[in-house]
Prior knowledge:
The structure holds two protein chains of two kinds.
Chain A: H1 12-25, H2 28-36, E1 47-53, H3 71-74, E2 79-81, E3 88-90, H4 94-97, E4 103-109, H5 116-125, H6 138-145, E5 155-157, E6 176-177, H7 201-214, H8 221-224, H9 226-243, H10 245-250, H11 258-261, H12 268-282, E7 286-291, H13 300-325, E8 332-337, E9 341-342, E10 354-355, E11 359-364, E12 373-374, H14 391-401, E13 409-411, E14 417-419
Parallel strand pairs in A: 1-7, 1-8, 4-12, 5-6, 5-7
Antiparallel strand pairs in A: 2-3, 4-11, 8-11, 9-10, 13-14
Helix pairs in contact in A: 1-9, 12-13
Chain B: H1 2-10, H2 28-32, H3 43-53, H4 80-88, H5 109-112, H6 131-141, H7 148-151, E1 154-160, E2 164-165, E3 172-174, E4 176-181, E5 186-188, E6 194-197, E7 203-205, E8 210-213, E9 217-225, E10 228-236, H8 254-266, H9 276-288, H10 294-302, H11 308-317, H12 320-334, H13 350-366, H14 371-379, H15 391-402, H16 428-440, H17 446-449, H18 459-466, E11 472-475, H19 493-503, H20 514-527, E12 535-538, H21 549-558, H22 586-594, H23 601-613, H24 634-646, H25 651-659, E13 687-688, H26 691-702, H27 705-711, H28 733-740, H29 760-768, H30 770-777, H31 784-792, H32 802-821, H33 826-842, H34 846-850, H35 856-867, H36 874-886, H37 890-902, H38 905-908, E14 909-910
Parallel strand pairs in B: 2-10
Antiparallel strand pairs in B: 1-4, 3-8, 4-5, 6-9, 7-8, 9-10, 11-12, 13-14
Helix pairs in contact in B: 3-6, 8-24, 9-11, 11-25, 12-13, 15-20, 16-18, 23-24, 23-25, 29-30, 31-37, 32-33, 35-36, 35-37, 36-37
Amino acid sequence: MSIHTTCDGVARRDFLRVGALAGVGLSLSDYFALSSQGAVSEAKGKAAIFVRLGGGPSHMDTFDLKPDAPETHRGEFKPVKTNADGVMISEHLPKLAKCADKFAILRGVSHTLAAHELGSRYMNTGNRPLPSLNYPHYGAVVSKELRGTEYLPSFVAVPNLGENATGYLGVEYGPFETGGSPQPGKALEVRGLALRNGVTLEDVDRRQNLVARYDNAFGEFGKEDKLLAGMDQFGQKAYSMMRSSKARDAFDTGKESEAIVNLFGKDQFSQSCLLAMRLVESGVRFTSVSLGGWDTHSDNFNALKNKNLPTLDAGLSGLFNALAAKGLLETTAVFVTGEFGRTPKVNARGGRDHYPRAMFCLLGGGGIQGGQVVGESDAKGEGPKDKAITPDDVAATFYRALGIDSRKEYNTRTGRPIMIVRNGTPLRELVA
Amino acid sequence: MRTAASILLSTFALTATLVAKDAPLRTPEQRFADLAKAEEPSFRRHIVPLISRAGCNGRECHGSFQGRGGFQLSLFGYDFDKDLKQMTVNADGDEKQVRINKEHPEKSLLLTKGTNEEPHKGKERYKKGSWEYNTLLKWIQGGAKADVEATGEFDRLEISPKEIVFKKLGDKVQLKVLAHWKDGTVEDVTQLTRFRSNDDSVSTISLAGVVEAKDKGDTHIVAFYDNGVHPIPVMLPVSDKVGAKFPKLATTSKVDEHVIGKLQKLGIIPSETCTDTEFLRRVSLDLTGTLPTPDQITSFLSDKSPAKRTTKVDELLKTPAYAAWWTTKLSDFLGNNARVLRGNGQNNYGDKFSRQWYDWMQVRIAKNEPYDQLMAGIILATGRTKPGQTYEEYSREMSGYFRAENPLNFTERPNMPYFWQRQNLQKAEEKALAFSHSFLGVRIECAQCHKHPFDQWTQSDFKSFQAFFEGVSYASKGGGKGSPGVPGETITYASLTKEIKEAVPPDPKGGNNQKALGAEFEKRVKAGEPAPWQEVFAVVRDSKSKLSEREIEQMKKKNPNFDGRVLTPKILGGEEVMLKEFPDPRAPLMEWLRSAKNPYFAKAWVNRVWASYFHRGLVEPADDMNLANPPVNGELMDYLAEGFVKNGYNMAWLHKEILTCATYQRSWKPNDTNKNDEKNFSRFVIRRLPAEVVVDGITQATLGTERLAAFRDDIETRAIGPNANAGRGGKGASNYSLNIFGKPVRETNCDCERTTDPTLLQTLFTRNDPELLTALEQAKGGAFIEEIRKATSGKGAAPKRKGDDAELAPRIAKLEAKLKKTPTNTELETELKQAKEQLAKSQPKPAAAKAPLANADDYIAQVFLRTVSRPPTATEFEKARADLAAASSPADGVRELLWAMLNTREFMVNH
């Protein structure tokens, strides 16, 4: 193990020691206790659900309509009133209009990265991507900062994340990818946790004994060596997760009450939102779900009207309402974002193209003040009207709701100190 | 060492701090304490080091990029102009309200804040009237002048003693630091030096430079003054087995001599030699990324030749798996990443380019082409493969590699330009960072923004180095100033692009027609016709000439602080280079890499190879060679690097030199003296297998006997081979396992992207992931368990999986429930009856289960050989026989044993 002093003179070895212990040396409860340090705060948020709208949803046709903009811009949809005073959204989001008090709309969120991947990396990390450094996904930071439960992973991606999620933090904070999306009323067979291939609980018990019978080549040294001892502890933890009915039930949306199930649609996105809610209820700290198909370069209005908006409306309203019904909304921060907005001017193919200068995000739950609009885009939706909200600010706000200090510094593996979010300031209207 | 030891001995009775005797030079305190008699302090030699040592320009204080309290110093110093300005001029450019008050020097904020007379967030840094205070005051009284020009360049630090070997805990030694300047000046700067211990659980160092032994073991103390960074080794022996008491150990290799040389000082006795099976497994995994097969293990064990270990290394060096695995490793170090190779404006050729890159290197590694030659083929590469090649010829050649019929062989290209082609390497600074990481094992990114905290590199060093890469491009323009166009050529990137556009009918919807254009491009490529391929080329920029106004304008757009100066490229730690003398700005760099004086090129590779064979490099992290991070065994590093160069950059020589030495062949079993040693290679430190090796290992352990023999060499199907590069980051099933086990994505300049930390997800994978469970039972070309099932279940019996049985019970329950609702449903009734019969059949017959399996011992031995690469012990045999006898069928029993062995730590680690 090498030793370096970081720029401020803190010996890097200390960091490495903590890092190494977190990975292997400590008992797992210690490990979670350690990772929860820094999460001691008065924040209400204890868990998060991240809803990614892949492709970049049009702001002008969803949550930032411009009925007074010229015809070339305003699009086909009409704004309608919501249950929040003065807040208007698209007519094709009727269910969300009835629960707009549960989330805040951020308008005039603005950046300059018009490519899907770069935009996503910015929006998924709160840091403008650099070629020399990979920032960790929100989920990796949250799973590092917040205490998880004994029998479930801290960070779950439904069905997967498809990107390097952990950045400089390292694989131990990576997502548990379910690999599939839930079907209505059925248990989601999650890789590694679900008992498949004919494996029964008795098999799990028997196999646990079997490993113990054969895994003793290292004798006493197996307890002294950090790597070997750590691997053994992960073995115990994996066993308790596989053994736990709670863990399996968390992935079984069929175990949910009818009243709650009925708040959601039957499609994959709705079911994923329902699953995310169950996971949060069971102690998962960060769940990401995603809804793609927003890259509407042509035929924007039909695509949105017939498919995307109804799907989003059902799933997201279900999520907010179910969290509220279960009393989880106060402790669960929900963050909805795409990688950018879309061009205010409609193109020749009835589509809208990539447009990062103006986009929207939604933030709700976790003590975030809902039922309001924060920030504003200009008359044609072409950019922020006054001060832009940056993705960094949104990130800082999200972390604040979870009680994570976004200015906290981590050391990268090269010993370089990096703030969780380098440039963001929490939006005061949303979090105290 | 002798000096230190003798000082210690001669002053044995003293508990007070020891001072080196030969101290003719006066200390700063002696020179500056008495204000009346004090010499004139120098800004560079005394003032800047003083405020650095006081911590003023640290990151948390005024070194922060935002400054503190309106006062901002350059981080870790070295921007003398700026720092002086910060002290003497305020933001408006006048001299009011500045840190230095020339009229009333003692009222200067630099003094009153530092003493906390004026409230200071940083508290008191020096006492009023102290020598430090007086030094600063004297300098201000003298007019607070800069003298960077006058002092000239710093030369080196000289520290005594050169090494410290302590006798017992609590021993103390005072260091003395002399600064040598190029103009011949020598000063005692002990009191102006910042010190740091690389491990203060072993040794601490006080502000004044007193080293104290805190624990057994070894580390380095590092001194920082001006541009000098100087480490000295410090140690306290672990046992009393030092000197004459150290056992005589036969050392047959130079590597062992150097390793034992250090262990002797530390009193650490190395572990025994590992067993033959341990060695075979270890060397197969490390050199070829592959587990030995049962046959190989058996024949190695029965080989009685004393040289069999060395012979084995020779043999493995010739296998395809060796070339495949080391090409994968080299791909990591060089950043071979399909995602960033897609090519601008072209169809996405990322996966294909990445594969070509891999193949090009693999062919050369297999041939054991000299390392410098291999690297030169990458470093100096251009798109065009011979002088005078026209764009048309180049473009036809590129299409030729991908054409449908009889494609050209990319590996026959004299060079491989993709290193420079990556999208994350567009700017010169990005190229400089990647170059220094890949070929020098040096991280200079710190110096991009401030002086490197652990090395000599300053921001201006970085900028001068970056200047080498200004002219290297991957672009579409052919014909710009100095670009590779051949005079008079009419077929260019632009003309081919136009041709393609004209060949495609316009999109009726008015769209950008990407798909059709892409198809036309593809059509040409398939036919081997010229298509608009971008190309890598290098242009020499004349550093002496002035930029045109337009160029300056453009530069300023990119960088508002651009001062219009073109830097003369300067080799890291070396001289300025007049690029005009070279056809390609990279040529002098390559010359420098190959020169005997180069401090990095050979060492970077030696260190990475060492780090692959042990749990750490000689320098660790392996790609972070800097002055403050010296090798744990400098003599060993020098020996290997010199030998590597002397042998013509022979990679096979290096592998063999390390793998055949006793140090590599130590057992993991510790003894009393070395159980805490993880630094000096006195025992084999256990490490988890790399991602690809785990994935391949699982496949290999579960494959049918016939497939197993071929799998080793069939690199196309291997995770250590070329195909694991393709589509990384995608959603493929095997990517999941590679990701969770830490295969690097190769996007950042850091060897640390590859991780071998264990995680919970990895354990869940080996315990219960469908990918693993399926591999146990089924495999392309047949699984081991399937074979056993066939052999033991009698002729014609369909192989039956346990899964079928397990599903029966719930199915029966369901059918019964349904039947209750609709009792008249005859179809259900039949189905239920069948299911019940099937279940009854599948219940193991007690008699059959009890019958001893004829070749049970063979199966048990196979499982052990396949996973932990050794025969089972007598106890293990006994346990396994019992487990097999109790299983529902022989095949199930073997499967459970195989599952268990794959889940042992013994399988998952290299030991």
